Amino acid sequence: MDFQRFPVIPGEHVLDMGCGAGRHAFELYRRGAHVVAFDIDQGELDGVEKMFGAMRLEGEVPEGATARTVQGDARDLPFPDDSFDKIIASEVLEHIPDDMSAMRELLRVLKPGGRLAVTVPSWLPERICWALSEEYHTAPGGHVRIYTRAELEAKLKSLGFRVDGHHHAHGLHTPYWWIKCAVGVNNDGNPLAKAYHQLLVWDIMKRPLPTRLAEAVLNPVLGKSVVVYFTKPSTPGRPEDVAGRETADAV
C-alpha cells in the first residue's frame, strides 16, 4: 500500500478486510486511525490482538487511536452501512469463490466519498506460479482465480466504484515465489529458497538503496501484487452513470 496515494487521517475509521497477520492494520494504528482488523481466521486475529496490545504498551500509538479485531465472513460483513472512511482489502479477494458478494459488502460498509484500496496477485507472476506448482493454488484456502487488472476494475466499477489509479508492488518477491513453486511450496529447507528469503528479510529490515532501486525497476513488469485504488461516489448513481462521469473527466 502506498500511503502517499492512500492517506489515512488520525481519527478515521478504517477496515482492514482480510487482515491476515495484520501488517496493514498495524500501520493504520500507528497513523492514528480507529482500526478494525477483520479476518475469517481466529488464530490470525489472536496474534493481531496481541500485537495491538504490545504497540500500546510501547507507546507506538497516537493518543485517541483505537484498534480491535473481528472474526467473520467477507461475504457478510457484521457492520452497519456506511461504517468506514477507508477500507483496505489486501490479497484476499483471490481466495473468495463468490468475490462479487464480498465486493458488494465493501461498497455497503464504505461511507459515500470513502476510499478503497485493493491488492491482488498480478496476472503474469501468478500465472507462472500456477504453471510451476499445482500445490500452490489447490491447497485449502488457497487462490481460486487469477485476476487481470481490467477484470478487477470492471467488477468493482459495475457496482458503482470509481477507479482512482493503480501501481505494482513487491517485484523482488516474485522470483522467490517462482523458486518456492519450483522446489516445493512447503520445502522451506531448500538452500536457494532459504537464501532468497534471507535477502527479502534483509531488504525489509534495512531497505538498502540497491534493492530499493532494483524493486522500482522490477515492479512495473514483475510486481507480485497489483494495487488498485477506488472511491465510492458521494452521490448515489447507477454504475453506468459513474462510468459516464469517468469518461467525461478523462476528456
UniProtKB/TrEMBL annotation:
Q: Which UniProt keywords apply?
A: Methyltransferase, Transferase
Organism name: Thermomonospora cellulosilytica
**Which residues fall in a coiled-coil region?**
none
What superkingdom does the record give? Bacteria
Q: What is this protein called?
A: SAM-dependent methyltransferase
InterPro entries in the record: Erg6_SMT_methyltransf (IPR050447), Methyltransf_11 (IPR013216), SAM-dependent_MTases_sf (IPR029063)
Question: What would be an example GO MF term here?
Answer: S-adenosylmethionine-dependent methyltransferase activity
Methyltransferase type domain: from which residue to which, for each copy?
15-117
Gene Ontology biological process? methylation
Q: Keyword Nucleotide-binding: yes or no?
A: no
